[in-house]
Amino acid sequence: MRALILSDIHANLEALNAVLEAAGPYDVLWNLGDVVGYGASPNEVIELVRPRAQLNVRGNHDRVCCGLSSSLSFNPVARAAAMWTHDEMTDANREWLAAVPKGPLHPEGLPEIALAHGSPLNEDQYILTMRDAWAPLQQEGVRITFFGHTHLQGGFCQHNEEWHELRPQYATRNDAETWTLLLEAETRYLINPGSIGQPRDRDWRAAFAIFDTEASEIVYHRVPYDLTTAQGRILMADLPEKLALRLREGR
Ligand code: ZN
User: Fold this and answer.
1) What HEC string does 73-139 produce?
2) Domain-by-domain residue ranges, the chain?
3) Hey, which of 3, 134, 148, 207 has its CA 20 to 30 A from 196?
4) What is the pLDDT of residue 132?
């Protein structure tokens, strides 16, 4: 089975289109949350994800944008984007988003796989370091947890007392590229596919991952997309300029 794993799309339609085109055929699609917020195409993005995804986990921006959580914890730019998104979404899309469950979720028949937005132990926690990764890696019966929220592609793994941070290595910053991780027995993984719509690892290309259960591998991807159009939409929507500028920096 090939599972396409998407996270932190953040209403970036151009990035999502490039990802769906680059992904090729897949059997299931799992969305790790933050479908909206920051970008200018919340309805279009929801309408692409909604019919395709078998599993959706809610993100913190999803909660705030559909009014489930207060925006007080957000910085002014994120808050302005969340308020704009709330008003921009159709009632149907807002209702769909409000019903997306909190993680962790387990795909049917795969109890050893978990899907979360932040940490599987706390949906709002950022897993940035080995220290953050420790407790989530100890979950009973879970071998691979897919998570997002940090917008940093990579993750962590643990085999007994051995620990590693996973960071895909790419040759360029412009072309479509992949980096393959072969999964080893007796090893636990925390896998972050990276952010589609607003990467923060100094690489502007849209990030995603494909989990191939037969080949027992995870293939990380980076794909270029029509950045100019995505930036133009943000500016034309009167969203904060910073949200357009940061896309080019990948931060
Ligand atoms: Zn996010």
Assistant:
1) CCCHHHHHHHHHHHHHCCHHHHHHHHCCCCCCECCCCCCCEEECCCECCECCCCCCCHHHHHHHHCC
2) 2-249
3) 134
4) 97
Distance CA 171, CA 177 (A): 8
Nearest to 5 by CA among 40, 37, 52: 52
Distance 1 CA to ligand 1 centre (A): 27
CA of 163 to the centre of ligand 1 (A): 26
**Domain 2-249 top-level CATH class:** alpha beta
Q: Which two tokens mark 239?
A: 């969203």
Q: State percent of the chain over pLDDT 90.
A: 98
pTM for the model: 0.97
Q: What is the pLDDT averaged over residues 21-44?
A: 98
Q: Which residues are CB-neighbours of 235 under 8 A, at least 6 positions away?
A: 241, 244
Rounded to the nearest angstrom, the distance between the alpha carbon of 196 and the centre of ligand 1 is 9
pLDDT digits (tens, 9 = 90+) for 185-211: 999 999 999 999 999 999 999 999 999
Per-residue pLDDT at 122: 97
